[in-house]
Specification:
Elements: E1 5-12, H1 18-28, H2 46-51, E2 58-65, E3 71-78, H3 86-94, E4 98-104, H4 111-122, E5 126-132, H5 141-152, E6 160-161, H6 170-180, E7 193-202, E8 206-215, E9 218-219, E10 223-226, E11 232-234, E12 237-241, E13 245-248, E14 250-251, E15 256-260, E16 274-277, E17 296-302, H7 308-321, E18 326-332, E19 336-343, H8 346-359, E20 364-366, E21 373-377, E22 382-385, E23 397-412, H9 416-425, E24 429-436, E25 440-448, H10 449-463, E26 469-480, E27 482-489, E28 492-493, E29 499-502, H11 503-520, E30 528-534, E31 537-544, H12 560-580, H13 587-595
Helix pairs in contact: 11-13
Length: 596
């Protein structure tokens, strides 16, 4: 019965206890056998468990017997909390009618809490506020309550107090979900409309498509059509997650589950597409998702060029699991063939890189990240450039524009001075300060995106001892003075180490980079010159000393001309080596360049 279905997700800032609350809900509803239980059960990726963060939204069907005697069918979607995975949250919210908004009793309302609340309000779903971790010694319940009322504008009487770790208040949360979250609308008799909100890949079954059935029903053997791409398939298997996949006969309207059609090519499934019946198609598709544009770009290349095809295959499968990740082939003179990839942020980039290396056993080289610059040429043409190698010659450029974002920084008041200093050092333009209660404040700055993507978030966290948080939104493009910093090794351009840098900082960055490269590039049998250059002028230089080779060790006694002859021969050999020899650049060099 549809009246007994409740679809809800858990949203919060990173590390406010979403996965732990999901664990308690799974325990209470008896979804998992005690012998198979482990903490953060829905974070099944090795990387998620290692870092203690949720990367992928995961869904699970639960049966809960409420106090009114009825057994409800709860579909829970656990979502990530980091700013880089907002797209996962927006997809999950679109498949729900309600959301639990979790706030840490010690940390209070943070940037991503506000961002996630706005996402939920856009979809007009029911919000249930929960203050979590009330058992902590430094929990400030009344202050957090006040923040939820002042900042989020929610009703104080609706707030539930809980501790997921100690299993306090979990029953109240489930009862509130049953009472407050409406059952899904939709009609079993109407033409099939099912929203694809996620997907994954299985070696044996092919692409597993996660769906929410809005109208109609879907069953095994049925012929279906993807309305966006116009392709048709036969349903091989229909099921739900409990949390392991459980095969059933059919999914009715309002239900969340998965289906397989034996699709082997990852590109055939588009997140946000609508599935309908081939025999009785729906007249229109469901509204999909707002397309999220990548913020950060970098090159990913295989260390061994023979792995290019394996990397291409891995990229396709990764795109299937993460629709916000984009890639296209490119080539580099120093690294060969690879891909130019777009990410939502630096953590997103790091996670994708690690997953490609672990899950597909690939050895990769990553180039310096950059954002998209708009280049206005003197002939009036405007081009988008995300790769320093594609920057036109200086004499062809009229002006360069870079993307700016509005940064919302939440912080304790006592750290205001150091954060203001940090924002100014990042070329930030101060907009306003808002005081939230006695101890918290919100700073609003306009900052170039290129300054935000590298280490801005990490520095805010360290300067505020973990209590600060950041959220940002794109505003527009503004004129800037950006130059391309090139690295030359023995006079040869190493395009993988080229980067965009603001003219004021070019000298400082060039000097730091060549000093770091001098430490990391292994010594050769000849001297290696490392230079940083802008256009045609060298701004910094360091030399890697040659390895000494004692060619006259075998000479004992005799005339000095014997030794001179050997030294002359060695000199010619070194000259030839320098002419034809290749300086091997280890992976650590690229990582060091990233961190500068």
């Amino acid at each position: 019965m549809k009246d007994l279905i409740r679809n809800f997700s858990i949203i919060a800032h990173i590390d406010h206890g979403k996965s732990t609350l999901a664990d308690r809900i799974l325990e209470i509803t008896g979804a998992v056998d005690k012998r198979q239980f482990k903490d953060q059960l829905l974070d099944d990726m090795e990387l998620e468990r290692e870092r203690g963060i949720t990367i992928k939204a995961s869904t699970v069907k639960l049966l809960y017997k409420a106090k009114d005697g009825k057994t409800y069918n709860l579909n829970l979607i656990d979502t990530p909390g980091h700013v880089d995975f907002t797209y996962e949250v927006s997809k999950s919210i679109a498949a729900c009618e309600g959301a639990l908004l979790l706030v840490d009793a010690a940390q209070g309302v943070e940037a991503q809490t506000v961002a996630n609340l706005y996402l939920a309000l856009e979809h007009s779903i029911v919000i249930i506020p929960v203050i979590n971790k009330i058992d902590l010694a430094n929990a400030e319940i009344e202050k957090t309550k006040q923040q939820i009322v002042d900042i989020l504008g929610l009703d104080p009487d609706e707030i539930i107090l809980a501790s997921a770790k100690e299993n306090i208040g979990t029953e109240n949360i489930l009862e509130r979900i049953v009472k407050k979250v409406p059952p899904p609308s939709g009609d079993d008799e109407r033409a099939l409309q099912a929203l694809i909100f996620d997907s994954s890949y299985d070696v044996y079954r092919g692409v597993i498509i996660y769906i929410k059935v809005v109208n109609g029903s879907i069953k095994t053997g049925m012929k279906i059509e993807m309305m966006g791409i116009g392709a048709s398939y036969e349903v091989k298997e229909v099921g739900v997650f409990k949390p392991k996949p459980d095969v059933i006969d059919k999914l009715n309207s309002g239900e969340v589950g998965y289906l397989t059609c034996g699709i082997k090519n990852a590109k055939e499934v588009v997140i946000g597409d609508t599935i309908t019946s081939l025999e009785n198609p729906a007249s229109n598709a469901l509204p999909g998702y707002k397309k999220i544009n990548p913020m950060v770009y970098c090159g990913i290349y295989p260390v061994n060029s023979k792995d290019f095809d394996a990397l291409k295959d891995a990229m396709g499968k990764m795109k299937l699991q993460d629709a916000s990740f984009i890639y296209e082939p490119e080539s580099s003179t120093s690294l060969g063939f690879g891909f130019r990839c777009g990410f939502l942020g630096l953590l997103h980039m790091e996670i994708i890189q690690e997953r490609l290396q672990r899950e597909f056993d690939l050895n990769l080289v990553i180039t310096t990240p950059s954002v998209i610059y708009k280049i206005k040429k003197k002939d009036g043409k405007v081009i988008d450039v995300d790769n320093p190698a594609k920057l036109p010659p200086v004499h062809e450029i009229d002006s360069i524009e870079e993307p700016f974002v509005k940064a919302y920084i939440f912080l304790p008041k006592e750290t205001m001075g150091s954060i203001l200093e940090l924002a100014e050092s990042k070329r930030g333009k101060y907009i306003s300060t808002e005081y939230l209660g006695v101890e918290k404040a919100q700073l609003i700055y306009e900052v170039p995106l290129s300054e935000v993507i590298v280490d801005f978030y990490d520095k805010i966290k360290s300067l505020t001892r973990g209590y600060g948080s950041l959220d940002y939104e794109f505003i527009d493009y503004r004129k800037t003075n950006i130059v391309r910093l090139d690295i030359l090794i023995n006079g040869k351009l190493c395009d993988a180490l080229s980067s965009f840098v603001h003219k004021e900082r070019a000298h400082q960055k060039g000097k730091l980079l060549v000093e770091k490269l001098k430490e990391l590039i292994p010594r050769q049998l000849y001297k290696v010159a490392i230079q940083a250059a802008i256009g045609g002028s060298v701004i910094a230089r360091e030399d890697v000393r040659a390895l000494g080779k004692h060619v006259t060790s075998k000479c004992y006694g005799g005339d000095i001309t014997r030794k001179r002859k050997l030294w002359e021969k060695q000199k010619l050999g070194k000259k030839r080596m320098k002419q034809f020899g290749e300086v091997q650049i280890p992976q650590e060099v690229f990582i060091a360049a990233l961190k500068l």
